[in-house]
Amino acid sequence: MPTAQSLSRFYVQVFLMGALSGAAHAAAPVPQLSPAIGGVLSEDCGSLISRVTSLPHTQLTLSETIKDGALQQGGQAVAEHCRVTGKMYERTSPIDGKPYAIGFEMRLPKNWNGRFLHQGNGGIDGVVHPAVGAFGGGPLTSALHQGFAVLSSDAGHAGANPAFGVDPQARLDYGYQAVGKLTPMAKALIEAAYGKKPDRSYFAGCSNGGRHAMVAATRYFEDYDGVLAGAPGYNLPLAATANLAGARLYQSVATREVNNHIDLATALTDKERQLVADKVVARCDALDGLQDGMVQDVAACQKVFSLKKDVPTCQGERDGMCLTGAQKDVLAQIFAGPKTRKGERIYASFPFDGGFGGGRSGVPSGGSPVGSGVAFWEFFASTNLDSGATGIIFKVPPESPVNFQGLEFSLKTDVDALLKAMYASNELYTESAMSFMTPPHPTDMTGLRNKGGKIVVYHGVSDSIFSVHDTEAWFKGVQKRTGTDMAKLYPIPGMGHCSGGPATDQFDLLTPLVKWVEQGVVPERVVASARGAGNAGGANPDLPSTWDGARTRPLCPSPKVARYKGSGDPEKAESFVCK
After folding, report:
1. DSSP letter string, 291-360
2. What is the 3-state secondary structure (H, E, C) of 438-468?
3. Cβ contacts of residue 333 below 8 Å, gap of 6+?
4. Do residues 194 and 415 lie in contact, with contact meaning Cβ atoms separated by under 8 Å?
5. Is 497 a known active-site residue?
């Protein structure tokens, strides 16, 4: 069996050939892939471990039947399936002396649709989440519910702790190699269970899972036919570094300390963030033809909204109804994208949108964040998550995880030097973070395109950790370099990171992707719904009380925008057109 490293070298060679061919590859006809044909589990699930003994570097630890209805997804009973757990490439690190392995779970439906879905997980991985393949806010369906065989993994380390970053191989597994090792194993296990390999293979995930999806689309395109990437942090090391730089800016206007630590949330209170969001909506809401609390024409909004003019400037004490001049200066720099001392942007700019008030800040005595959404990413993640990621997982050489102080690292480390470390390597850490964490050539997807593969990307406009502007730049680059016939981007107004915000964040983009890949049906508008009280997928706490809890809107492929027709129920998607 070829190693992940050899596969990687092969795919890089393919991409170099593609880059040399350029326009010729982009002009090549795209083959139409045939639809998948389903099957049924050939034998009892419990005997699967004893029957599958020839998977290289793999130990299966459990196979059990999950009865019909024992698992619920979005209020619906998931049909009977087989759950298999295991681990791959078990080893002891020569660097930190700790045990490592790629832990995984597969769920194999009794009635299979002939498809495989690799579920990319978020954060820094380290946890084998249930392999259900559920995406899109509070999803009412899942890949498992639709009959996919689904794989989930911890990407090569146990525990969501950045300490694994001192082990060079664990870094590479987390970045991309775990996918290269897991994929052939999963397909072999599927063949053992159903008597044939999957006809069609898909990769899907949001956040870091979206990054995994982007990496799969470029490094492992031979193995996948369709890719669904949500909020893809394909420049994750840069985004995390920029978030640390943003924390420095917020620190300059923070007004309070808690337990001798600066409280970044006092730089911009929940009320002040909501003020900014309300002013954006007031200025831009009607640009799409209807005042409904949503900013659909985001690009036009950036041209007409002025933080300086449209948000009141405090003449006295802060009272939540104004911002000080210093707060405005900081916020302007945050949205423009923090810069180095030389004035070079670290990552990307962010658009002003109606979702900036999403989430609530605060940390209780237990130390866990109360809020989510914007408040979580701006004020908590920068000092509690991005510090460990940049300092221990991405930096060369890494900081010692022993007594690592995230807050101190975030607020005192030289950001310019840290940015340089994202591109550094040495004899022990042979690949930089910007090598092992990112797609080799993000906009070159000729390999996926020329085999008939497709990629669909969605991104919340109010995502405050991974910028929709960065994803839009990627999309335009793909159209220019690879072609316009294999990628779709769906910006979602108001939505935060993967879900939430004042948005219609419940949707199914996997089904349109499958139809595009297997039937040639090009996805256009996709109807999304809000998640009000009683929603089977879970209520959205950011949903405005003035909205119909079942509001629907069309998600429009970029650069189209959802616009009101001028008549019809303003709460229904059919009253809007994408243009």
Report:
1. -SS----HHHHHHH--HHHHSPBPSSS--SS-B-HHHHHHHHHHHH--B-TTS-BSS------TTTT-S-
2. CCCCCCCCHHHHHCCCEEEEEEECCCCCCCH
3. 249, 339
4. no
5. yes
Q: Which residue in the list 63, 142, 201, 207 is annotated as catalytic?
A: 207
Tell me the Ramachandran region of residue 231: left when phi exceeds 0, alpha when psi lies from -120 to 50, beta otherwise. Answer: left
Strand 257-258 and strand 58-66: the pairing is unpaired
How many angstroms separate the CA atoms of 328 and 313, rounded? 8
> Residue 222 phi/psi, 5° resolution?
-65, -25
Query: Of 447, 423, 455, nearest to 10 (Cα)?
Result: 447
Of the residues 463, 470, 505, 542, which is catalytic?
463
Model pTM? 0.93
Catalytic option among 25, 145, 459, 497: 497
Numbers of helices and strands, H then E, in the chain: 20, 19
Residue 529 annotated to the active site: no
Q: For residue 52, give the nearest of 81, 80, 85 by alpha carbon.
A: 85
Domains, the chain, with CATH or none: 4-234+439-578 (3.40.50.1820), 242-433 (no CATH)
Q: Where on the phi/psi map is residue 63: left (φ > 0), alpha (ψ -120 to 50), or beta?
A: beta
Residue 42 among the catalytic residues: no
Distance in angstroms (rounded) separating the CA atoms of residues 351 and 335: 7
The pLDDT of residue 9: 39
Conformation bin of residue 97: beta by default, left when phi > 0, alpha when psi is -120 to 50: left
HSE (CB half, 13 Å, CA atoms) of 333?
21
C-alpha span between 143 and 162 (Å, rounded): 30
- What DSSP assignment string belongs to 154-212? -TT-SSS-GGGGGSHHHHHIIIIIHHHHHHHHHHHHHHHHHSS--SEEEEEEETHHHHH
User: What is the mean pLDDT, run by run of 10 residues, along the chain of 579 residues?
Assistant: 39 41 55 96 86 90 94 88 97 98 98 98 95 89 96 97 98 98 97 95 97 98 98 97 96 80 89 97 97 97 98 96 98 97 97 91 45 83 94 98 93 96 98 97 96 98 97 97 95 96 96 98 97 92 94 98 97 97
What's the Cα-to-Cα distance from 17 to each of 24, 123, 486, 533, rounded to whole Å?
Answer: 11, 33, 19, 53
Rounded CA separation 577/64 (Å) = 47
3-state DSSP assignment of residue 406: helix
pLDDT at 258: 63
> Are the C-beta atoms of 33 and 517 separated by less than 8 Å?
yes
Pairing of strands 226-230, 257-258: unpaired
Residue 518 neighbours by CB distance under 10 Å: 21
Tell me if residue 501 falls in helix, strand or coil.
coil
